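[job 0412] stage=complex_fold ligand=adenosine-5'-triphosphate status=START
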Amino acid sequence: MDKVVSLCKRRGFVFQSSEIYGGLGSCWDYGPLGIELKNNLQNFWWREMTQLHDNIVGIDAAILMHPRVWEASGHVEGFVDPLVDCRQCKARFKAQDLIGQWRAKKKLDTLADAEIPEGSEGDVAALRAIRWGDAVCPTCGTRGMLTSPRLFNLMFKTFMGPVEEAASVVYLRPETAQGIYVNYLNIMNTARLKIPFGIAQIGKAFRNEITPGNFIFRTREFEQMEMQFLVHPDDGDPWLEKWRDERFEFYMKLGIRKEKLRLHQHTPKELAHYAKAAYDIEYEFPFGWQELEGIHNRTDFDLRRHAEYSGKDLTYFVEETRERFVPYIIETSAGLNRTLLVVLLDAYAEDTQEGELRTVLRLNPKIAPVKVGVFSLVKRDNLPEVADRIAQDLRPVCSVFVDHQGSIGRRYRRMDEIGTPWGITVDYQTLEDQTVTLRDRDSLEQIRVNTMQLPQIMRERLAE
Ligand code: ATP
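[job 0412] stage=complex_fold status=DONE, emitting structure tokens
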């Protein structure tokens, strides 16, 4: 993990936000290579989830929505974490993290004879029943200074318009999904869709996470790639399984190692308030198995609630059978930043080439920020000019990086480190027969090809 974080900073993938002011907790900026990788990743997802299906369309909804949306969705009331404070040392903990720590250390006796029921972590009433006042603070070791859990809403609040009053409170959306639900009839009617169909969206979401961390894994501002698939209520279960399998397959197409991926089915206690059944796709991060994407059968919960709160009819009507129903929603919800972290962690490798240690990102060429490096063997005798012309011809096809400085080995290694799949070197032979060497990042194979063929070769390799 440390190596990837340092590579991200050194090579311009990810910087800490507001670094010259000491940084802002859990906020990150994407540099020149980071934004290329992020764009490629989201385009890869978008193509897989919209273009390759005949019944999935896209939307880009506003981040700010009517505040009633978040009452209907249950977020105002339910999107809360119970927090415990130590009155002695002022440390603050998520109640469930404390229980987790105590369980892991088998220190339940710190709670005297208090009972912690299995599965109480998500249940506020059960958490409150625990005798926190008898427990020991893990930070300062004082007994009897922990408060009982208080609820903390994870939504960021702000004010719309110049007056700061309750009536003008709006929230930064904590998930992109609601923008799809409230627009479903607009989209269905304008795009002339019939159930089953899907709506895809990529966009920012904000959560005032209490324990952000692990670099870009958990942040307060992040991007989601979500697809909401609307089905007949009877068809919820089979569609959930279909999307679970298709989404798992997606990460293998992306080039993630299969043995680092697994599915986790939610137990009844883990299910979110809106879900009937759910799976997580998990990745084995350096800090353990963690969720990368959630796939949920959200039932008709959201649409029913929006119908109730807005007073609008959100039912779906089948002309032929005269049947009327509220569609069920199968949701696939992935984190773009989290996927980017997975892609980097999974691609990172070190090997020895010609007795030298090499760092290489074995990125899928489709998402690599730079596709090809173009080099002149030496910086004289017209070689740089020839290399520049080759680069110019390749630019309409893919992203190119040109470098005329330093030893050729060093230049290759700089490209390997950012995951550039191919390198082209112009040498003296090029001046005689118009051929260049084309080097492969992974096999290290070098072949000679005619410069005229390069755009076509690149096009073919990137289409594979
Ligand atoms: P967790 O339990 O880890 O907080 P969640 O189950 O609430 O996550 P979802 O609401 O299902 O997460 O969000 C879907 C996806 O969005 C997650 O799988 C993850 O990839 C991404 N995501 C959620 N919260 C964050 C965050 N704070 N930072 C980065 N990505 C996030």
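Residues 175, 207, 209, 218-219, 222, 224, 291-294, 333-335, 337-338 surround adenosine-5'-triphosphate (CB under 6 Å).
[job 0412] exit 0
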